[in-house]
Amino acid sequence: MPTKRSLKKSASAAPRGTPKAAATDLEHILADSGARGGRADWGVLTALTEWAWAVPGRKAIPFADVPDGARMLILMNELVSALNSSGLLYLADWELGNDYGDIRQCTETIGAHMTMAYLDEFAALFPRNRVPVDRDARSAALERREARDAKKGLSPIVTIDQRYREAALDEIPVRVRDYVRNNKLRFEAETSAAAAQPAGSSPDDLLLDERDFITFNEGLLARYGADAAYVLPRTSARAQVTSFR
């Protein structure tokens, strides 16, 4: 079964740029956003997500370690893709729903109030309004709820989708665009913290390189003994960026 990462639009790795180049890219994306809003801004949301993924090394690290601003762009793009495809059923039965808590937080951060209500009604389908993090547990709980409501001739997910889905699909891209526009310097700083570093030493690359190094070193030790091991240089810690939450 596809995972949430399969929802993202693939983007070719961009050359490592300078802080100025990163800022210019974002300016161009926002400048391409029309004044129509709604579905007209889907393309801008996709472009912002590709911009977030373009930092070298980012696709290879655990998603939980992706910086907050980039995580927000990626999750909102995936949520739009999911809702457009199958509504809340996608959120319930696919691994994207594992990130429900973060998704709900992101909608609050960007001020997507209609989408917040949509997600809250989804959460209300589960005991104590808590969406299970585990996909199988989430699906099982929802099936029990659907079976109970079916006896009354009801389908809660369909009802909620009918009430909110179209409005959410219009709202999310606009709110993301406006949030990035209003916090442009913070997004630029987050990306520039990685892009301005020498190749192989961005915040994302440092995390990836250290884990790869440990694996490589363990292989050397196993094959050739202790004298073959290298010492990992202690470089700077991961760059600190302003939290978006």
How does this structure look, described?
This protein is mostly helical and about 240 residues long. It is built from 10 helices and no strands. Helix 1 packs across helix 9 and helix 2 packs across helix 3. It is flat and about 60 Å long. It starts with 18 loop residues before the first helix and ends in a 21-residue tail after the last helix. The N terminus and C terminus are likely disordered.
In the predicted model, the low-confidence regions spanning at least 5 consecutive residues are: 1-23, 197-208, 228-245
Biggest sheet architecture: none
How many strands appear in the DSSP assignment?
0
The 3D shape can be described as flat
Mean pLDDT: 75
Rg over CA atoms: 21 Å
- Strand content range: under 5%
Fraction in helix: 55-70%
> From the helix content, strand content and strand pairing, which structural class follows?
mainly alpha
Terminal residue distance: 31 Å
Number of discrete helical segments: 10
What is the ordering of alpha helices and beta strands?
HHHHHHHHHH
What does this entry show, briefly?
With 245 residues, the chain is mainly alpha-helical. It is built from ten helices and no strands.
